[in-house]
Amino acid sequence: MLYNRNMAVKRGLGKGLDALIPSNNRDGQGVIQISITSIKNNPWQPRSRVDTEELAELAESIRKHGILQPIVVTRSENSGEFILIAGQRRLQAASIVDMHTIPAIIRETPSDSQMLELALIENIQRSNLNALETARAYQALSTNFNMSHEEISKRVGKSRTSISNTLRLLKLSKSVQKALSKNQITEGHARAIVGISKDVHQEQILQKILNNKLNVRQSEQLVKKLTHTPTSSNHSSNLTTEETDLENLIRNTLGTKVNLQVKNNGSGKLTIYFFSDEELDSITQKIL
Q1: Distance between CA atoms of 117 and 125, rounded to whole angstroms?
Q2: Residue 255 CB: number of other CB atoms within 10 A?
C-alpha cells in the first residue's frame, strides 16, 4: 500500500504527538509494515465508539489511496505482538478493506499514563472523541495517574477551566449522559443541566428540552428559572427604595440573581449567585 512520509498530516498535532511521530527517525525503526493480526488494542484507548459512517468513508479512502499516515505501536511483552498507541480508526478501516499489513512506527514501550495521554491527545486534536469520552479520559488521568487539572491542561493543550468543565459532565445522570452520547442534546445543553444536583430533576429538564426542542440559551434560562429562589417580601421590605434600585441595577448588569442585605449600621453583604462555571467566568469578567 502507498505511504508518503511527506503527506503525513501534521496540522493541529501538539508536541505530544510530534514527539511520538517525529519527522526524523530517532530510534532507527522508521516506517515498517506490520501484520494487522499482531496488533492489540490500546487498553487505555479513551474512545468508546466509532462512527460507522465515518469509518466506512475512511475505509473507502484507504482502498483508493492507501494509508497516508502510519499508525503508532509499541512492542508487547509477547514476542511478535504489538500494542496500538495511535491510529485505531485507521487500523479498523484497514481491516475492513482486507489489508493484511499496515504501515506503522514502533516506539519504545511507554508507561500506562503515557499510552493514555498519547491516545487522548491524538483523539482530542483530531476532534474524534465526544464530550463524555473526553471527560472519562481526563478522569483516568486524574484518578489513575494523580494528575491535577492544571497538569492535564498542559498535557493536552486545553485550559484548566475547560478540563474542569468537561469533568463536570460526569455528574450528569445516566439518562442525560445517554442523550448526550446519542447527540440528542449538545454539550451546551449538558452543561446547563449539570448545574442541577439531583438526577430526577436533571431528567425532568432533559425531557422539557427534548419535548420543546429548546436551544442552549433557552435551556440555560429554564435551569435558572427552576433554581431561582424568589426574593421574600421581608427581604424587599427591609431595603430602602434606593437600595432596592441598587440591587436591581446590579442584577441587571451581571445578568444573574443577587441578594443585597443592609443592616441599620450601614454594614451588610451582597450575594451574587451563579449556576455554571461559564456563568461564573462571565460574571468575573464583568466585575474585573
Answers
A1: 12
A2: 11
> Could you identify the residue written with the cell 508487547?
76
CB 118 within 8 A of CB 45: no
- In one-letter notation, the amino acid at residue 43 is P
Of the candidates 94, 91, 50, 93, the one whose C-alpha atom is nearest the C-alpha of residue 72 is 91
Question: Which backbone phi and psi does 278 adopt, to 5 degrees?
Answer: -65, -40
Q: What is the dihedral of CA 163, 124, 105, 45, to 10 degrees?
A: 70
Q: What are the cell numbers at 54? A: 465515518
Q: Could you tell me what percent of the chain has a pLDDT over 90?
A: 20
Distance separating alpha carbons of residues 230 and 223, to the nearest angstrom = 14
Q: Is the dihedral of CA 130, 154, 220, 170 positive or negative?
A: positive
In this prediction, residues 85-103 reach a mean pLDDT of 89
DSSP string, 37-100: GGEEPPTT-------HHHHHHHHHHHHHH--SS-EEEEE-SSTT-EEEEE-HHHHHHHHHTT-S
Q: Give Cα separations from 126 to 75, 97, 141 (angstroms).
A: 25, 23, 19
Local confidence band at 174 (pLDDT 50, 70, 90 cut-offs): very high
Q: How far apart are CA 28 and CA 113, in angstroms?
A: 24
pTM of this structure: 0.56
